[in-house]
Amino acid sequence: MGGVPKLRLPAAYAATARRSVRVTLAASAGFYLFLYGFDSSVAATYALFAAVAMAGLSHIPGTGRQRAAILLPAVPVCWVLITIGTYLSVRTWSAAVGMLVIGFALAFIAVGGPRPAGAAPGLQLMYILPSFPPYDPGSLGDRLVGATVGLALLILAEAFLLPDHPPTIPYQERAARAADCAERFADALASPPYTLSETTLRGARPLSNGLRSSQVPEAERPAGPSVRDRALAHTGLAARTLLARLAVLQPLPGTPTPADVGLDVLRAVRDCARETAARLRGGRSGTAAHAELWRVRQALAAEPPDGRAVPAELRRHAAALEVADAALAMSTAADIAVRGRAAAATAAPGRFWYARMRAPALWWRRLTGHLGQRSVFFQNAVRISLALAAARAIAGLDTLPHGFWLLLATLTLTRTTARETRSTVRVALTGTLVGALIAATLLALVGTDIEVYAAALPPLMLVTFTLGPVKGVGWSQAMFTVVIALVFAQLAPATWQLAEFRLLDVLAGSAIGAVFGLLAWPRGAHDELRRSVATLLRHAAETAVETTAQVAAGGTRVPLLTAPGHRSLQHALIMAEAAYAQYQSEPKGLAVPSGRYDWQATLMAGHHTLWGADRLLVPPEPVVVAPLDRDPTEAVTRIGDRVAAGMLLVSARLDPTGDTPDTTVPLRARTFDDFSAEPPGAPWQYYAAVSWLDALVTDLERITGGLGERKDRDSARATAADTPDRGTETSASRPERPDGGKGAATGP
Questions:
Q1: CA distance linking residue 681 with residue 223, whole number of Å
Q2: pTM to 2 decimal places
Q3: How large is the greatest C-alpha to C-alpha distance in the chain, in angstroms?
Q4: Where is 625: in which H helix or E strand?
Q5: Which of 81, 145, 250, 550 could cross-link to 127 by cystine, CB 3.0-4.6 Å?
């Protein structure tokens, strides 16, 4: 006999079922405790809605214990919101103004990362609930006690009840595995046959792509403004860059000797990568390998190849410096991620500007960097705050029964695009209508038999919070409408008209959300994405021209200054990343088609422009660089101008105006062979600049699909460790203000 088969829920339902059990127990326990134990309907209402708001309406990513860690500091924030809402409810205008200001502030905290963004809707409800009549400051104590008990029960349930499975691979471990791979790469390149096998290259691809934010669970994604999050993001960027540089490193010319300087760099990189991996895993690791790599790197920069070196040796020398810089950046960023501000003494003041700053300053930098109409975070905050303020004013002027349902519908159904909002509203109204019919029938049949409602509420909540997140907004609205009816039927005598009020409020709230979705940036991130990436490429073109001019002119290089145009390009990159992240979250079936352009490649072009310019112009220590001779100057200037022109042409096509030409101009013309030119007397700086500019053209070709027009010389190796995907890199390791950072390099 095989016995009874074991029932196993699908993964999606299992996860929501665990969360549903927690929120149901917390909400119903607080509700019944105050309603039937202490005969306090006010405290009961706030206990239930506090738990529902912060667990049912909010979507804080992570395990239960991670959510509990976020909810704990949110408790005093809820006290403040309830107090403000209670006192501002004295007048409709004061409640609406408060909704405008608080609604914007709570929506804008999404700039702090996925966890603050996930908690924002629940915090909005904690202000919405007390902002409606009756104006009763005397009940503030009951409101605070009820909300506190509800939140406390929820925190305990999240922390100890039905624990979630931890994420498979935390970001810190992902970075450590990438460092392990870099160690293997460097070891293979430093020993015969001094090359990487195709098997080794293919194995690096998932490790590199695994550090992209789109491949990391939200709870583990280092997207916040803290020192640790910025340093972890910087570690990931540096690790990916190091793998990409090692993957395309050309073999040593001739037969290398044991004392070859290239081998010294690779051995030092190998040891430094091993040390970095151990540090990220929490092991006892010193800084000896980092110090040795620094010494080798300085020796390499101080003794460039002499004038008799062949171009292949010069290219190899420039590539070795890039590899060393990437490994040093990875090691330093990992040290900051592990030790925080205690590691700031070893960090370069420019590249790791954030290491010496305290949390309030970092938060201020992040907030002010997005405080402008070109930020999608700002646009979303304005849209939702205006919609909520309008809904509160309408609810107050028309004295709608249960007016907070109106704001709840506005909050939950407003989307970032008008088309998505309309689609969501249709489904939500259908679900609400079905739920209202069921609720009206139930209220008419049961009448005032409160025991029936009390018995039916917990299992209905359990089903609602299990199926709703998986089935979608229609199911959620239908079942939540019935839940609301059962709750209010216990608070006061109710008739079937309660379901009618619920339907009318959802209809009005949906209409308000649709109107403001149509008036305020109706196309969501699509238009902003086009504008932001075009702006990014224009700034990148300026940086390319100015950088090549300075490489040709030579002069004094100091580590405390940034490359030309660094801060403005940096800010443009942050705006483009935010727009792209939101664009990726919007349903593609409703968004305007993006055409044939690879938007993610524009972000990589911005990163590569920053990294290359800083690598060429911002050395670790002050140095005087001789100007290039005439032939190398003319060659590098032509290449820089060509790349800048290509960036401008691509930017015009990404964000066209009425008279933008439709003619496609090839980025890499067959007659333009300066990328392979070897001018007499050209030093390694020339070859480093040409290599950087050539990589930028490859980025541009990826944007426009131009890779199909030519044979990609390094496609197998370049994509092995650095393949673009549908995700976007986090901007956590960079200053947000165009005038805010003294730092030089932001990537390796």
A1: 46
A2: 0.80
A3: 98
A4: strand 623-625
A5: 81
